[in-house]
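TA notes, week 10

Several of you asked for a full example with nothing omitted. So below is the full record: structure tokens for the whole chain, then the designed sequence directly under it. When grading your own attempts, check the secondary structure regions first.
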């Protein structure tokens, strides 16, 4: 830009420095070769000169930053996953470090890794990983996260600074991370590479593991021009309005970028909401991400369970991107709907926009040939299977035979999923709830949700064949429990009705409400009952401004003591009549 401001054809004094910025790793040679004697020092614009010098120094620092992977490193890591052999990894944790790990299993300690008896990695950071389904103690078959640079700067493992060893207890084929990661990447969604490794812990053979790429600078640089944006870990069943952990990035440290996206999704006026979301989110990328999560039956992913995801604030494009994670329980429910509205914040917001909903249906149709017929996926499974079968055979012939059956089961699920997707392809979108002539509808089939294990939710039959759903606080003194039901509603004004009573309720105060009451998800309530009351009718009014919206009804108790009873046949919705249009 500075060079372009010259008024004549004479080269800029700092043209050589500008060329350095194009190839920063050559800066020192170009700088040293600059013709200092030929510069017109009298006509030099010193203000712009100093600015250019600062720019040069900045690029010099970037050139030496070891956290920014080179193209060679990116290629090295990719080749390891795509065409490398299956490594043998012998991990040694000293008694002192193991004691620390057992005391704080989510905190890094030091270990040594020997790879194939040829390469040794020292001072490697290691910690346990996994949630409710996959977590195991160190003495069992633990899932592990390893960071080879945390305690040893500049050290890499096949170009990686961080990687995971997944025990695959929820995927006996050990193939789903590889299969689905490749699927997502093939349609432009950043997803971690995966391969396999045979692992020993302190001399104990713990068998075959899935070795997965970490979400580090190598991962980000593989998919983005700028790897310095904020990268957030979705955590365990947390949406974007939670206090997500920032894994990396030089952006804001107060999560205001996350809050901005969450607030955009909650703007009351639809048109203003769509405009702001489109400014912050790469909507097209998210639609593809959402389609792939639903088509692969990723029930434990972001869209359906606000779990197992990462999101990245790209400094270059100034847009948010979502990545999949934890893909070890895929294609389970082969008939899972791709048409229902997800309940996570961003997914629900995007699909409430009719134009984006139409684009989602279109994108599903574009992706359908990857799933139906399933021939290509079946062939890929066979290739992955044959790669690890000799190792399984060498470890345990019976285990190899059992694995054959598990792989065959996966293939049958892939076929069934392809058939289901083909059937759903021709189905219309779900229709909004219909009301009777009075504009009312009793709501049944309530789901029970409790935050505390000692909370009791039970059905009680009263005289006169009346049934109530009772929520009883436990001894812990912490009861946030509810009956929940999602309903699809058309644009209009609604009232949620309920008959309830309370017995010795001591309310818990929070921003969503206190005591016993009713509301919809995402809203606060003023209605509440506490202490002991007779049967009382409560109402909660709300408006659906969108053409169609998935709304979650909530009948809840927030208390430290007591119980609340809800009459099941009183839980209903009423809709105000739409205004009549006069016709000439």
């Amino acid at each position: 830009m500075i060079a372009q401001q010259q008024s004549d054809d004479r080269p800029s004094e700092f043209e050589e420095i500008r060329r350095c910025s194009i190839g920063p790793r050559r800066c020192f040679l170009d700088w040293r070769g600059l013709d200092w004697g030929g510069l017109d020092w009298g006509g030099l614009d010193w203000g712009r000169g100093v600015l250019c010098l600062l720019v040069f120094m900045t690029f010099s620092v970037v050139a030496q930053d070891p956290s920014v992977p080179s193209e060679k490193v990116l290629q090295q890591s990719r080749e390891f996953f795509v065409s490398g052999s299956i490594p043998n990894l012998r991990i040694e944790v000293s008694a002192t470090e193991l004691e620390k790990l057992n005391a704080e299993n989510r905190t890094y300690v030091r270990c040594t890794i020997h790879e194939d008896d040829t390469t040794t990695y020292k001072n490697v950071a290691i910690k346990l990983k996994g949630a409710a389904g996959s977590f195991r103690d160190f003495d069992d078959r633990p899932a592990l996260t390893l960071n080879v640079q945390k305690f040893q700067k500049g050290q890499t493992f096949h170009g990686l600074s961080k990687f995971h060893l997944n025990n695959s207890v929820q995927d006996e084929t050990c193939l789903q991370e590889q299969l689905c990661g490749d699927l997502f990447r093939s349609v432009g969604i950043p997803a971690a590479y995966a391969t396999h490794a045979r692992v020993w812990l302190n001399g104990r053979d713990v068998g075959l593991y899935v070795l997965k790429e970490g979400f580090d600078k190598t991962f980000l640089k593989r998919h983005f021009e700028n790897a310095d944006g904020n990268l957030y870990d979705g955590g365990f069943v947390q949406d974007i309005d939670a206090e997500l952990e920032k894994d990396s990035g030089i952006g804001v440290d107060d999560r205001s970028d996350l809050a901005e996206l969450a607030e955009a999704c909650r703007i009351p006026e639809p048109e203003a909401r769509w405009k702001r979301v489109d400014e912050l989110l790469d909507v097209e990328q998210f639609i593809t991400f959402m389609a792939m999560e639903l088509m692969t039956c990723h029930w434990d992913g972001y869209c359906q369970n606000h779990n197992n995801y990462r999101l990245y604030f790209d400094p270059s494009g100034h847009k948010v991107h979502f990545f999949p994670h934890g893909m070890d329980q895929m294609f389970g429910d082969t008939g899972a709907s791709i048409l229902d509205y997800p309940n996570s914040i961003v997914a629900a917001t995007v699909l409430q926009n009719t134009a984006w909903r139409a684009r989602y249906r279109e994108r599903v149709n574009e992706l359908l040939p990857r799933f139906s017929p399933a021939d290509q996926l079946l062939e890929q499974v066979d290739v992955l299977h044959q790669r690890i079968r000799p190792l399984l055979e060498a470890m345990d012939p019976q285990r190899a035979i059992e694995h054959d059956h598990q792989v065959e089961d996966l293939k049958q699920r892939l076929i069934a999923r392809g058939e289901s997707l083909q059937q759903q392809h021709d189905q219309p979108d779900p229709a909004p709830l219909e009301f009777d002539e009075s504009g009312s509808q009793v709501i049944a089939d309530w789901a029970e949700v409790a935050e505390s294990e000692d909370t009791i939710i039970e059905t009680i039959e009263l005289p006169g064949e009346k049934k109530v759903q009772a929520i009883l606080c436990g001894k812990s003194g912490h009861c946030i429990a509810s009956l929940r039901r999602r309903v699809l509603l058309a644009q209009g004004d609604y009232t949620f009705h309920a008959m309830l009573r309370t017995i010795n309720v001591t309310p818990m105060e929070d921003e969503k409400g206190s005591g016993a009451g009713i509301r919809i998800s995402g809203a606060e309530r003023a209605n509440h009952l506490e202490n002991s009351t007779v049967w009382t009718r409560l109402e909660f009014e709300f408006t659906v401004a969108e053409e169609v919206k998935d709304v979650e009804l909530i009948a809840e108790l927030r208390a430290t003591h007591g119980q609340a009873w809800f009459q099941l046949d009183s839980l209903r919705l009423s809709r105000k009549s739409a205004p009549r249009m006069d016709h000439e």
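The radius of gyration is 29 Å. Use that as a sanity check on your answer.
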